[in-house]
Amino acid sequence: MIELNNVSKTYTNGSQVVHALKNANLHIPKGAIHGVIGLSGAGKSTLIRCVNLLERPTEGSVMVDGQDITRLSAAQLNQARHRIGMIFQHFNLLTTRNVFDNVAFPLELTGQSKQAIKERVEPLLKLVGLADKASQFPAQLSGGQKQRVAIARALANEPAVLLCDEATSALDPQTTTSILELLRDINQTLGITILLITHEMEVVKSICHRVSLISAGELVEDAEVGDFFTAPRTQLGRDFLNDFLQLTPPKELVERLQSSPGERTHPVVRLTFSGDAVSTPLISRLARECGVDVSILQAKVESIQERTLGLMIAELLGDAQQTRQAITYLESHQLNVEVLGHVQRND
Amino acid sequence: MSSAMIDLIFQATLDTLYMVAISGFIATLLGVPLGVLLYVTRPRQILARPLLNQVLGIITNIGRSIPFIILMVAITPFTRMLVGTSIGINAAAVPLTIAAIPFVARLVEGALNELSPGLVEAAQAMGATPWQIICKVLLPEARGGIITALTVTLVTLVSYSAMAGLLAAAAWAIWGFATAITVSCRKSCWSPSLYWWLWCRASKAWATTWYVKATVNNLDAYSLFY
């Protein structure tokens, strides 16, 4: 549904050339919810703005619904944009229009009759749960309600694609959840393809099917959300994940960590496990079968869509032979084992 | 207060209202579109035309920076061409309008500048044409700012209209100034035609003033207040 092929965007600022986007390739199938996550200034906004040509790419093609929109004339582009909804971090509602007229705005642009507008706006307001607020003005609404109006407005012309530009970044966690639920509903009931950019892992975790990681204008990772959360392939991906799970070894442990094993050390490992491994009593089996005791320092179980993800930081207590065996055992059970370092034995 | 004074004040008020209304109306008609044009032709705006924008900007800045009293004298030929005379309230309305147009334009541009750029972006994303953005987003959203701009303009026009009335009285000073310049320019090789023309204008205005003063002197100044 959305296809970016070798899209690059460069700005020239005097003699300075800024590469906002480098050779970005992205393929989003119909009906998918695709997230792009990255730090501030990584090029997320440029990426999403290239999809409806609010930013025109310097190179590459942008296909939306089978149409290369970089080749369209101004009038054709406006036509195409009617079928691409967009919502923003700061909502961008018209302050002089009430809720009803805000949602009616895109319908006015396409020259629809008053009657047709009324018939379209009312169910939309019902869909976003604001049927009773039709005559209120944006200034009278809360942030979450404003975003609901923006969503209704974006859906007015029955778009095939919805672009979400940091749509929940200005909202509190509770409101974020309700807006994300609304987006998921829309995706499921209307079959709209959603591309969203965010810096919050929570957003990716709760609604995205696939996720891309963007860094310095490049898409560095593209994975199913479940895979991304269990085994990110890049360091940046791991940083995002650790930050999100807040699973870092305690500070006093980090201070004692040494990178290579010594005479009397034992390894500290980070275990990531998903699927069947979650429900298998691996720790007790480890003790039985390898003779290794496990001291759990931190642990967390997250459910990411239909998958369950377990994370653990643990010390493996045993001699070198035993711990090596234990690690092999864990890996053979589809656990991701990362040795963080080694600590001196206390005994 | 004598009835003569009341009549005078009444007539002057009517004249002021007339001048301000005419020039305010025309300046709004021309200044608001100019202000919008100044905004939308900026680089990275919906109708980005950087060259046109610069030219308009320079013209507007010149219009804004000429002191009204100078402008009034300088455009006299234009005024006469337009209304057939260079004295009277119709004639005064011409420089008032000319001065007010760039004034309105800059204030309107400022009002548009206050809008969040996100509004235009959202409208663009919805497939709005530039014309739709101007009519359905920019003007309605900046309505408050534009009304303020027009109010400020009307108040300024009132004070300018008083200046127009004072021109006659001040003409002798300009005449003296222009004479001095004309004399000095004649000594240099630089074309003195502008100053010569200024001198002629000032002389005529001075003569008119003298006539008006003589008439006014016939009124007993003290009787106006007792």
From TrEMBL, chain A:
One family from Pfam that matches here is NIL
Q: Which residues form the ABC transporter domain?
A: 2-241
Q: Note whether Isomerase occurs among the keywords.
A: no
State what protein this is by name.
Cell division ATP-binding protein FtsE
Q: Which GO terms describe its cellular component?
A: plasma membrane
Any idea which UniProt keywords this protein has? Amino-acid transport, ATP-binding, Cell membrane, Membrane, Nucleotide-binding, Translocase, Transport
Organism equals Vreelandella azerica
Localization, per the record, is: Cell inner membrane
Q: Which GO terms describe its biological process?
A: amino acid transport
What does the UniProt function comment say about this protein? Answer: Part of the ABC transporter FtsEX involved in cellular division. Important for assembly or stability of the septal ring.
GO MF, any single term? ATP binding
Q: Which SMART domains match?
A: AAA, NIL
